[in-house]
Amino acid sequence: MSKLTHCELRNGIWSGRLEGSADAPNVIATYQGVEIADMSVTPISGNIWSLELPLPLEMLSDGVHSCLISLETGEKIGDFTVIAGEVLAGDLRAEIARLRAELDLLKTVVRRGLA
Q1: Distances (CA, A) of 81 to 47, 77, 95
Q2: Helix (H) or strand (E) holding 4
Q3: Rounded to whole angstroms, how far apart are CA atoms 15 and 26?
Q4: Is the pTM here over 0.85, yes or no?
């Protein structure tokens, strides 16, 4: 059983740590169903491996973009999401406002029931 831990996303390069594989794992990253080339797998110690993946420029644009990380066997070991853009910020604020309004409504109903 392999465990993938996200480390950071810096300068367009995602990095993570993979534990649980004694031999060099064949890790595959896909974005929109297409494999992303240039995944770097480097040993750290024993069964721990460092992963580095330069993100394609398409992922660094407005919207929500997800990348799946899996082993060659097809076992999904993780994923990460990149969210960017001015339009998205407004959407998130609207969603938070809607959730707050629903919470206020729920609090009012609960208080009436307890009174």
Answers
A1: 26, 14, 18
A2: strand 3-10
A3: 16
A4: no
Query: Is the domain of 34 the same as that of 59?
Result: yes
Which among 42, 55, 56, 46 has a CA at the least distance from the CA of 8? 55
- The residue segments making up the domain with residue 54 are 3-84
Q: Give the burial string for 69-80 (b: 16+ CB within 10 Å, else e).
A: bbbeeeeebbeb
User: Can you tell me the distance from the alpha carbon of 49 to that of 73, in angstroms, rounded to the nearest whole number?
Assistant: 17
What's residue 18's pLDDT? 95
Please state whether beta strands 40-45 and 48-54 pair in parallel, antiparallel, or not at all (unpaired). antiparallel
Portion of the chain with pLDDT greater than 90, in percent: 52
> Are 30 and 68 members of one domain?
yes
> From the CA atom positions of the chain, what is the Rg in Å?
20
Q: How far is CA 75 from the centre of its chain?
A: 16
